[in-house]
Amino acid sequence: MVEGSIGQTLLSTIEGLGQPELDLLNRTIHQDDFTEQFVIGPSFYHGHRQKLVFHLLSSRRIVLDAYLAFALSCGDQAQVNTSYKKAASALFTLRSIQIKDHLDITSCLMLGWQLLHFVFQLGGREILQVCSQTLSLLKPHYAAGKHFETSHLSFLTSIVLTETAECLMMTKLPTLKLHHAEASSQIDGCVGLCTGFLLHLYDLAAINVDMQNRSRQGQCKAKGLPDLRTKLEGVRLEIRDWKPQLQTKIFTKFTALEVAHMLCQHQIMQTAALLIIHRLQHRFGKEDGTASALACTILSQIDLTVHVTGKSPLCVDLPLIVACLEVEDDSAREQRLRSLSAIGRHSAVFCDRIKSMVMQVWTARRQGRIVFWHDIGHLLSRFL
């Protein structure tokens, strides 16, 4: 892997880049205030940056436009305007890439990951498109029994969790079910101890789609519905009883603040999944006591972690949205969304999108519409 200043390394290896572009690349890869957006803490900074620089040097034909799209999106207005052109070129590459070897696999992953963060910064609607396109290309290579590249795990889990969260909100089926034993035993820079939990979120998203299909087809009293409820109860028990493979090294290898973030992620992700199940079983406005208790647990845990560590933990936006769907007061809900979203700290566009999505559901509730969790996708269709 490559060390040192990216500005010094790339000046002699990449043609056509001026000093301003190199400075932006250096900033988005090497400065801590950017790196902290993507991994839990400093223990993961070195490995994260190594992968970014390695692929920029070894696969620049594939990844450079995506790297520049994200870097320029963090610059001034003129640079932001240029970033859209780079993103369009990178998206064309993603749609046309043909994976021929192992390097192509990880290069495709990095291409999709950078495009996703460009979308977080300036877009919104394209989140699911970028995730699904990337994971569709990677799926044959990360399927069960295939080679699994754990060194790039945090980039993969970032895309998988983002797509799965979008699918749970939009009532879609995720592309990739990440169920490798190697993944489940890894402490991940993005989702910490929750890598093994992603497969349960996939199962929950699949049931959500099934329940929506039954509802649309008017099969609420159909013969197969009890089987679906039994399946949902099975997933609920698996989620309730799930425990991460908590390795003893977590307390010696990582800082106390990093451990606090990992434990918060694990607890609120599990609680959010149980709250989604509750809203698949009981429409919004019914059995609110249980829902409120679960939502308060999520918000209190995030509050506590912020108080202890000074910042919101990564990858808590799905639990945050799930909890805020139970918060009736508009101003309190908006304050929560703006202050506790890790992505929202860096992207006002992303934060505004979340706020509008949650408000859309609350508008339907106040109009007296019957809304189960599997109905949310229809309510939010304009955000795709």
How would you explain this protein's 3D organization?
It is built from 19 helices and no strands. It is mostly helical and 384 residues long. The chain has a domain of 193 residues. α7 runs antiparallel to α8 and α9 packs parallel to α11. It is globular. It starts with 5 loop residues before the first helix and ends in a 5-residue tail after the last helix. It comes from Metarhizium robertsii (strain ARSEF 23 / ATCC MYA-3075) (Metarhizium anisopliae (strain ARSEF 23)). Keywords: Nucleus. Pfam families: Fungal_trans_2.
Quick description:
With 384 residues, the chain is an all-alpha fold. Helix content is 67%, strand content 0%. This is Fungal transcriptional regulatory protein.
The biggest beta sheet is recorded as: none
Structural class: mainly alpha
Total of DSSP H or I helical runs spanning 4+ residues: 19
Strand fraction:
under 5%
- DSSP, total strands: 0
* Helix content estimate: 55-70%
